[in-house]
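Q: Make up one entry.
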Amino acid sequence: MKLLFISDIHGSLYYTKKALEVYKKEAADYIVLLGDVLYHGARNPLPVEYDPKEVALLLNEYADKIIAVKGNCDSEVDEMVLDFPIKATYSIVLQEGRRLFLTHGHIYNKDNLPKLSKGDVLIYGHTHIPKTEKKGDVFVINPGSITLPKENNPNTYGVLEKDVFEIKDLEGNVYKEITLL
C-alpha cells in the first residue's frame, strides 16, 4: 500500500490542486492529511489562492481515499463542510507490521512522543519543517508543508511505500528519505 502525506494546506486552493496532481502522479492508494486543512491560522500569512470553501469541495471528491487528523487550526465548522472525518487529533494505521501514529504535531511530536513500540512511526506536521529521524527505537517523520514551508525548505509532501518514507518537493525530487528498518 502506498500512502501520500500532506500537511498544512491552510486553505490554499492552488496547493490543494498541486497535492492532488501529486496523488495521481504517485499513484498512491490513500491521502493522509495531517491537519490544518482549511484555515490559514492567525500566525500564518494568507496562502496563495486562499479559498477554504473550494478546498473543501475539491477534497470532498476524494473523501473515500482520505485519512485525516485534526490540526490546531481545524474547527467544528470545518468538520461540517468536509465529507471525511477530521475530529480526532490522532489516528493509528497498521502498515507492514508497524503502527503509524498520525497526528498534527501540536500535541504529540518529536519532543512529546506518544507511547510507541520498537519500529513504530510517529508522523506529524505542524512545524512546516521536513524531518526524518530515529529517536531510540521509534521513527519520527514530518513531511513539511505543502503550502507554507519554513526555514527555507521547499514545499513538500511525503510518500510511504513498504519500508521507505520519502519527502519530496513538488517536482517529485526526493528531498529527504528514511528506511524504516
In short: The mean pLDDT is 97. Residues 2-89+143-179 form a domain with the Purple Acid Phosphatase; chain A, domain 2 fold (CATH 3.60.21.10).
